[in-house]
From TrEMBL:
GO biological process: base-excision repair; mismatch repair
UniProtKB keywords: 4Fe-4S, DNA damage, DNA repair, Glycosidase, Hydrolase, Iron, Iron-sulfur, Metal-binding
Family: Belongs to the Nth/MutY family.
Pfam name, any one: HhH-GPD
Keyword Ion transport: no
GO molecular function, a single term: 8-oxo-7,8-dihydroguanine DNA N-glycosylase activity
Protein name in UniProt: Adenine DNA glycosylase
CDD domains noted in UniProt: ENDO3c
Keyword Iron: yes
EC number: 3.2.2.31
HhH-GPD domain segment(s): 1-153
Provenance organism: Cryobacterium tagatosivorans
Cofactor needs: [4Fe-4S] cluster
Length: 253
């Protein structure tokens, strides 16, 4: 839920989710459309389908217990390097490098002396974090969490709080006089207003709002541009977020 989504938006959804489905088996027992409906407006709703699929896989392969091995976690639908290592490190206490956007920024500045990190690279990012990680399990888990929090609260992207940073005297970027970033930049996402993502969101909201099929006429009324509307609807069908039925369209069942 936290992937590309602010914590303040996730907390109420997480609480509702865990109250309704406290275990993987509980989530696996309902249709995938219920997961998509409960996902509400968190965005990137394919994550809800992936989470449901992962719950089914955990129930069938692991007796309903989330695995602690990174390779077993990576074999689950929708689970990537960050999530697998975060679960192994924070839930089970294993020593693994956990790298997110905030971690990469802190390492780029404090160690590399760069204003911004280079575009993400699995091998390079994990290797850089591994070099810094303490040997002890408890210490490594604390370090993973600490560097994330440092990036999220102090070493922020736009207004880093260098004057209160606990590692300011060891920071290579500060020592170099805060040189500006001159390297490659991560691609900036197109604005939401008027985008296909907005149209997809409107259609998804209509599907979530009812348990009856949404008709073609109702879909047509959601957005004036027929070509863009059709493109968005086709994408939802391909992604498995919408299902065509004799009466129109529904969430997956």
């Amino acid at each position: 839920m936290l992937q590309q989504t602010p914590v303040i938006r996730v907390i109420p959804r997480l609480e509702e989710w865990l109250e309704r489905w406290p275990t993987p088996a509980a989530l696996a027992a309902v249709p995938p459309g219920e997961a998509v409906r409960a996902w509400a407006t968190l965005g990137y709703p394919r994550r809800a389908l992936w989470l449901h699929s992962a719950a089914v896989e955990i129930t069938e392969r692991h007796g309903g217990v989330v695995p602690e091995d990174v390779d077993a976690l990576l074999a689950l639908t929708g689970i990537g390097d960050y999530t697998a290592r975060a679960v192994a490190a924070f839930a089970y206490g294993h020593r693994h490098p956990v790298v997110d956007t905030n971690t990469r920024r802190v390492i780029a500045r404090a160690v590399g002396g760069q204003a911004e990190p280079a575009p993400p690279s699995r091998g390079r990012d994990l290797a850089a974090m591994s070099l810094l990680l303490p040997e002890g399990r408890d210490e490594s888990a604390a370090f993973n969490a600490a560097i994330m929090e440092l990036g999220a609260l102090v070493c922020t992207a736009r207004k880093p709080g260098c004057e209160v940073c606990p590692i300011r005297n060891e920071c290579a970027w500060r020592a170099a006089g805060y040189p500006a970033h001159t390297g490659a930049r991560k691609a900036v996402q197109k604005k939401f207003e008027g985008s296909d993502r907005q149209v997809r969101g409107l259609i998804m909201a209509e599907l979530r709002a009812t348990r009856h099929p949404v008709t073609d006429a109702e879909v047509d009324g959601l957005w004036p541009d027929a070509a863009q509307r059709g493109r968005a609807l086709d994408g939802l069908l391909v992604d498995g977020l919408a299902v065509r039925t004799p009466g129109g369209y529904t969430l997956p069942h």
